Amino acid sequence: MGVRVFRFLFLLLAGLLAGAVLALGYLAYAYTRDLPDLSQFDRLRLTATSTLYARDGTPLAQIASVEEGRAIHRNLVRLSEVSPAAVAAVVFSEDRRYFQHYGVDFVRLLGALYAILRGDLQGGSTITTQVIKNTLLKELAQARSLERKFKEWALALELERRYTKEEILEMYLNVVPWGGNAVGIKGAAEAYFGKDPAALTLAEGLYLASLIPAPNARYQDLKGVRERMRLLLDQMVAEGWVSPEVAEAAWREPLVPKGWEARYDGEGNLLEARLVDPEARILRQLDYRMAPHFVLEVRRFLEARFGKEKVYGEGGLKVYTTLDPAMQRAAEAAAKGARLPEGAELAIVGLDPETGEVLALVGGVRREGDEYNRATRALRNPGSAVKPFVYATAFEEGWTQATLVPDRPLEFPDPSQKGGVWRPKNFSGTFLNREITVRYALDLSLNLPAIYTAQAIGVEKVARKLSQAGFAVKYPTLAIAIGGASITPVDLAAAYAAFVNGGYRVTPIYVKRVEDAQGQVLYQALPERRRLFDPLVAYQGWDLLKGYVYDLGEKGLAKGARIPGRVVGGKTGTTNEARDLWFAGVTRGLSAVVWVGRDDNKPLRMGGREPSSSVVNPPIWREFVAGALRGRPGGDFPPPAGLVQVGIDLLSGQPSQGGIKAWFPQGKVPVPALRAPPSEGAGSLQETPPAGAEPTDYPPGSNEEAFPAPPPGQ
Length: 714
Fold this sequence. Notes:
- By secondary structure, the protein is α+β, with helices and mostly antiparallel strands.
- Helices cover 36% and strands 15% of the residues.
- The strands form 8 sheets. Strands 7-2-1-8-16-17 form a 6-stranded mixed sheet, covered by helices on one side. Strands 10-9-21-20-19 form a 5-stranded antiparallel sheet, with helices on both faces.
- The longest helix is centred in the N-terminal third of the chain and has 31 residues, at 2-32.
- The radius of gyration is 36 Å and the shape is elongated.
- The chain starts with a helix and ends in a 27-residue tail after the last strand.
- The model is unreliable at 26-33 and 675-714 (pLDDT under 50).
């Protein structure tokens, strides 16, 4: 009887076991008959963080890729780019028999099957199966199911057949999630320790390895992670992975992940730990080290050039920008120290006048996280900063710096003005009531001579020239001669470059080169230069700009822009009611602009009064340019062939040995003779007697700047 019962129980148990095996076999067949094709690994696209570099190769910013609407911090690395200590720590913690098994560790698998029978579907994972889980089976990654396990095991065996252990380990290090938005060991090294994975120590590697099973929970438990690290170190010593001395040195390393404050004793014991900033490990979608507005402009360029899907859905770009860190620091220091009118914003831009490469850029100073880039987006009236282009256009028509222009009240029909007549004025409401040289007219920043010049040579010609220079000209009216067009700070810097680079308007460049993750060049910038002036005309314009800075000594409106040891040229600009203040200047190595104004375009006030650009902007410009070019060559620009330097009387334009030195084309050198003013042009422009002059409001964008009396004897 007992034998029969035993036999029955044996057969029943054998049947149950066979049934279980058959059931598992059927499940295995059912779950693995429709597996993803491993050839997908050859074309598997992993999103990655894009890195922006300054011109000296230092990292400038990171643009996170996006997966499922969430910013992901991941950069793909080669196995050789990770410190061996960190690799050893991860392998030992996650799969210490990794180099002995063939994708499935049967020792761990038996443990996993035992756990399954107990209702726990954890366990049995290897590095190979985790690669499968985080790539081909990503949709099942969070599911605790037999389906996922069977598929993982089957795919792991095939993965081991197709790839080497080193290749699979490299895949794993690039796909494993490390908590927060860090994916892959490069993202983890930066997120938790702010370093490259090649620089990770054994202690840091063990910390990261200890996070892997539950990174978000374990990140908040530094004490618990330290206990796990101690256990791993002891096991590594016991199994011969490291020496006792190496293990002890790793234990005594004072490990402080980002966001934590921690204190240790000399034996490596954690005395105190406090999580002070849980968000410290999170990479923002746009994370910059400096120059936030410049970085935003680069991001806009990348989106426009490659599309958002490439930038955020794939990423991994290496973007080499034009930014000079030393110049940027100088710009930020100048912006920080600037004395600004109430409620005013500021923009600073400096670019290479030869290539257009933007070397420094500040797009605003008042608000943290402000994404409005005034250097590239603030389209404003330039005031008198436009006048050098008016006079340079006149030089193309045969005028010179000694050509005489009237500073008398002028009027012409304008239906938009009261009485149907526009009577432009100088800032003071007064005038010299005589002809003066073009150079002196610019030195004093007079409006009436500039308007006269535009009328005499043809306002249509001036409008075309300004459009070519980058100004937005709505209507070709005489108002454009004193600031009635619009331009952004960066475009004004690009236009002013023409005065010192032989006459070319340069296109601003922010990105020099873009590479993909494999190092393939996707974009290579080429300088874009468009002829604006003849070289002789351009140099005469440069000479005018120098005159504006130096001619009138301490009475000069741009005296605050002078830099010892450098030759500087430039022009201020102040618009109606001081809504916009400008200084645009050039010197060897830099074309730079400082703009000051309010975002709401309200009039500026400083101490209850209207400020002038001649007071506010040149000191900021000087602070920036002096710092940006410190230690770099100075000196003047050499004149092109065909120009002659002659001393002239600044007021009359007559030759004068003790006068101002100015450059003239050969054949147009002033001679000691009476000079008639150039044709005053036909049409509506009229001179009116001083007694009848009553200054009226300016048209939009016209200049209001004080000017001194003529220097004695000139």
